[in-house]
Design a protein that fits this description.
Layout (H helix, E strand, L loop, with lengths): L1 H5 L7 E16 L12 E11 L3 E11 L10 E16 L10 E17 L6 E17 L4 E12 L16 E13 L1
Antiparallel strand pairs: 1-2, 1-8, 2-3, 3-4, 4-5, 5-6, 6-7, 7-8
Length: 188
């Protein structure tokens, strides 16, 4: 009976906006990566929005990593980027159990990934949109009722197309990487 009094109303949901920055790590690709840069760390910025119930939630996540296929001063690639847009399901510990501590969560979902590479003299250009799946987790801790910090680690990997549906790559087009990020969590 006491649990019913403590529990949040069924209709109550926690809404969060989380602008983030971080780095991509451990990338790999079959795209022609003339500078060998996809495995290097690259800056990533983005925003996600989440609606959390007591244990389950949903999230939309947008991340952008400029220069993903560029490494230093090689200058074989004029510009490049990787952008992800995913929808995710969130599994978390009930808020009332973690009110004054970190609240861990797991995410899984999918969406689209856009890879773009512009080479010198326009050779081997890439502008490809692929289906992508992501999985990961993190923790969120609030320092006030409205503001907190969120630390997150996710793995992104493209989903294969049928054979013969290839662009400029060695084998079927694939791209995968880890993303580590920190966000300002804003409850509203």
């Amino acid at each position: 009976m006491a649990g019913l009094l403590i529990a949040r109303p069924a209709g109550a949901a926690e809404k969060q906006i989380r602008p983030f920055f971080g780095a991509t790590l451990g990338g790999g690709t079959t795209f022609i990566d003339s500078e060998g840069a996809s495995g290097n760390p690259h800056v990533v910025v983005g925003l996600n929005a989440a609606v959390l119930r007591d244990v389950l939630g949903v999230e939309v996540d947008l991340g952008h990593s400029p220069g993903f296929f560029q490494a230093g001063n090689n200058q074989l690639v004029l510009s490049s980027s990787v952008t992800t847009l995913t929808g995710n399901i969130i599994l978390t510990i009930p808020r009332h159990l973690t009110e004054y501590t970190l609240r861990p969560y797991l995410v899984v979902g999918g969406g689209a990934l856009r890879a773009r590479i512009d080479h010198v003299f326009g050779v081997l250009p890439v502008s490809d949109v692929r289906a992508v799946a992501d999985i990961g987790g993190g923790v969120t801790g609030f320092v006030t009722n409205r503001l907190g910090l969120c630390w997150d680690l996710r793995y992104f990997g493209t989903i294969s197309r049928k054979p013969g549906d290839q662009g400029i790559s060695i084998g079927p087009e694939q791209l995968s990487f880890w993303r580590a990020s920190m966000a300002l969590a804003i409850r509203y």
